[in-house]
Amino acid sequence: MDEHGTVVDAVDELLAILESDTRVSFAEVGGVTRDATEIVGTTKGVRSANEWITTGVWCRVFADGSAGYRFSTELSPESLSEMANRATTGGDQLAQSLTGQVDVASTYRGVHDGWERESVTERPLSEKRERLTEALDNVTTALDRARVQYADERVDCSVATTADSAVRTTVDRARVDATVVPDGGTKVRRHYGSTRGASLLDEVADHIADADRDAREIAGASDAARPSGPTTVLLSPEAAGQLCHEIAGYLAADVAAFGFSPFERGDRLTDAPLTIDDEIRAGSWAAVAYDFEARPSTPVRLVTQGRVESFLHDTTTASEAEQIPAGNVIPAIGFEQPPRIHHRHLSVHSGAASQESLLSEADVYVRRFGSPFYRDEFERTQRSGAMPPSSLYAHDVAERIGTRPDAGTIELPIAEGFLVDNGELGAAVDSTVVWTADALETIDGIGRARSTITGVASKHKSRMPYAVTAPAIRMELQCEP
Question: Rounded distance, CA 450 to CA 77, Å?
Fold first, then answer.
């Protein structure tokens, strides 16, 4: 029997164990087969190149309204029985005050075979290695160092639930993580990802060339004094995408349950025509056909013309809010950590402003931000710490911590930025901007052209893929030197 067949049998067995356990009110069981590649290159050539196949099963179990999660690569009957008991006991012992309600009436079966034209497994390791080497050899910037990682995987995933839902999905996911440090210059970091299979391999050279160009531009710019105080900032489509990724994070129901979100449904954020959808795009790095709860993925309108329209939910938070879940319980990359409520592919609608008009009244142009820093210590701790896979557990935490005035305040270091002089980019700057929800009121321009940014976010130690397509946005932000 092949690996996938073994996993399917393990899913059936684990589901049967959980269905026979009277403590279990509802459970989801999944099986995963990952056929993966990872290649790491530097300016001295390829440092490592590996490929492997892994199999595993996971389960999320609701007992007394709380949830426990387990993942295992051991598929023996004894291991599956122990795994089921640990997941059930974990949920039972959580002592969560609110009981999750699971909709078992809406059951279905579905299959999705992915968006690739050519699977990542159809290209040999030697070709992948050669493509990465050629891309690095074509870098023209004088470098202090560089590191480029190409990784791909074909994931076959089956999900079954005790409510008789069953889905099977296939995803060919590939990514490139590039870090380029020019001599005497600022580090440039890029992430490129897709679920279009081997097609990303054909684009590696172009992506590395783009990073090379940006690194050369930063290295060639003179340094300027760091701006401070209220500053009119033009965010490039990529930087705007990074900011909108943070905004969407505060529109997740579990984050709101902690009390961290500055938003409520119906809030007027800005008079600007800011509209944000969470979509499912064929081939997007963050696309999923069905989510972890075996629900089909459907688009969600988060913000309409500057007003909050919806939050992202799982079945329990949706029931609490009297909303309909849209497939936003996203599996973590690798499946080792629990799923989380998360956006898939954010689409920020275009505006009417040209790049020239946006630059004409800007003081600083930000091409990319660095990693965000959440000013509130407790918010920072909760975001980075491990959490149960039950979103309603956040209510218990919120009751203990009370009001946090700095929650929803983000410091965003400018990783790649320039002063703007008479509509032209000038000296490089590396200040930090401070974002709060009030800053959205100052948006006075949204660009026509859009670009897509991809990445991996960490939410309670679960590594979540995300993608954002956004235009340039001009607004006033507080700069700190």
Answer: 51
**Residue 183, number of CB atoms within 10 A of its CB:** 10
Q: For residues 351 and 240, what is the distance between their CA atoms, to the nearest angstrom?
A: 13
- 299 half-sphere exposure, CB direction, 13 A CA radius: 11
Q: How far apart are CA 109 and CA 169, in angstroms?
A: 11
CA gap 439, 129 in Å, rounded: 45
Distances (CA, A) of 56 to 5, 76, 155, 157, 343: 12, 11, 11, 10, 25
Q: 73 by DSSP, 3-state: which?
A: coil
Q: Which two tokens stand for residue 136?
A: 């690095």
Q: Whole-angstrom Cα distance, residue 55 to residue 79?
A: 14
Cβ neighbours of residue 280 under 8 Å, at least 6 residues apart?
287, 288, 289, 297, 298, 299, 327, 344, 345
* Cβ neighbours of residue 5 closer than 8 Å, sequence gap 6 or more: none
pTM: 0.85
Nearest to 75 by CA among 56, 54, 52, 53: 56
Whether pLDDT at 443 is above 70: yes
Residue 84: both structure tokens together:
């089921």
CA distance 249 to 342: 7
Expressed in angstroms, the distance from the first to the final Cα of the chain is: 61
CA 459, distance to chain mean position in Å, is: 9
- H or E element in which residue 315 lies: helix 315-321
Q: Are 471 and 350 in contact (CB under 8 A)?
A: yes
**pLDDT tens by residue, 220-277:** 888 877 888 999 999 999 999 999 999 999 999 999 999 999 999 999 999 999 999 9
For 226-260, give the DSSP string: PP-EEEEEEEPHHHHHHHHHHHHHTTBHHHHHHT-
Which of 467, 243, 440, 449 minimizes the C-alpha distance to 351?
449
Nearest alpha carbon to residue 341 among 253, 444, 465 = 253
195: left (phi over 0), alpha (psi -120 to 50) or beta: alpha
